[in-house]
Amino acid sequence: MTMRVFLLCLVTAAVLGCGNSGLPGASSKQHSVDNKTGQVKRNFDQAQIKRGESIYNTHCIGCHGANGTATPEWRKPGADGKYPPPPLDSTAHAWHHSTEVLKKTILKGTPPEIGSMPAWEGKLTEQQVDDVIVWIKSLWSDEIYNVWFKNFEGK
Fold it and tell me: How far apart are CA 119 and CA 109, in angstroms?
């Protein structure tokens, strides 16, 4: 068991050392781990965050609200049985999904029987989608980002 934990730590350190965020065109050092506290520090590219915010404000704000706060009734399905757009900040479930799932949802949209999220594939470039995802992650509290990181990036 101890050898397994050691190997897991070694692999995790190697992955973190590479700084791969899983996003093409993303900064190669989007996060680092504080050796003393074990907390993840975000090292997002501020220019990428600004681009993501601009793209969000142009294409997403109408459904997901200013700063990703959405509508108060996002947990209740509408008359059509579909759920309204959820918040993208720390208050909902966006952080329960990997970067890949977030990207796929933006590119492909939601299944029509569940929600009304349109597909943005062919309308936004991959870089624009990556920028929006980094901006969304910048909205999350440090506590939420740490949980997300440990569940998806720090494995």
Answer: 4
